[in-house]
Amino acid sequence: MGSSGHLSRGCVSFPKPMHKNETVFKHGCNKLDVFDWLQDIPPTADQLKTHDCVEVRFKNSRKDFFRLSAGVEVAVGDIIAVEASPGHDIGIVTLSGDLVWYQMRKKKVNSKSEEIKKVYRKAKPSDIEKWVSAIEQEQITMFKARKIASDLKLEMKISDVEYQGDKTKAIFYYTADERVDFRELIKILAEEFMIRIEMRQIGVRQESSRLGGIGSCGRELCCSTWLTQFKSVSTNSARMQQLSLNPQKLAGQCSKLKCCLNYEYDTYLDAIKGFPSTEIILRTKAGNAKHQKTDIFRGVMWYSYDSNPDFFIPVSVEKVKDVIEKNAKNIIPEELEALRLKEEEKKIDFENVVGQDDITRFDDVKK
Q1: Quick check: 48 pLDDT over 60?
Q2: Which of 2, 56, 199, 360 could anchor a disulfide with 91, C-beta 3.0 to 4.6 Å?
């Protein structure tokens, strides 16, 4: 299994069946990792009785909550066997204690629900051996499944395969633009791999989050590291931030608008509340002036006359409001140039204090 394979399950290396695996699970480089900010606070006896659920991670971003069986004690990083349908699955404990309750409340999961599946036990050496063997088959299975789907001429893309820990079932994640009839595909896959098949359709954003990658900012994709909810992104977010509507720059690796366009959207909304409408035309004796662009955080708006649309005149927001108020009273100012904002020229002073950039610094100067 490649490096991305064991990291997708939160492991820095292959777990060994005959070892305790204390160093296998490491926080910091895992997808959708959670920091336990209550880890230094020991739980009370009442809390241990009340909070009997743990958060368990599987491949990539798939996580779920499970209830501890009687007599089973686990800690963060333990490899455990949990209830599945059918059989059992193998996962890694990512959270335990009070913080699990907060996570369940955040994700609107009823902690007292009887539908929460159980934790059977800590994984035995035989469980880990079968789990590792199943993981090694995932990439091979994905390539074979893609070949079979192509032979059947199905308009779908299989982007990921996840085997269940007991190697009796596999989830095939795929993307498709239209509805796909994959009944024949399931039949062939079941005969080929001798397992139960589950087809799960995902969107292009979910596909990018599972595959991962590096964004234009030079960092890992937000959706594959910490982003859990995909909010809709509209071009209005780009317009509000005065960005040019260039699809090549605004689109992420999923070919959709970048999620980060929403990060500062609320800040821009608050900052622009005191600005006048850009639809208002300023009337002057020199002619009518239309809005061209805005620098929100500097509080500057650029206008140009109808007679000379390529010549932009910077005017402060306060003076723009003043002109609008005068126009409302049928008072026409002379021209916008009189209100022009004087931009200070930035002078960069450089002083070579140590002489390191002097081209004669290596010359042997005789005194």
Answers
A1: no
A2: 56
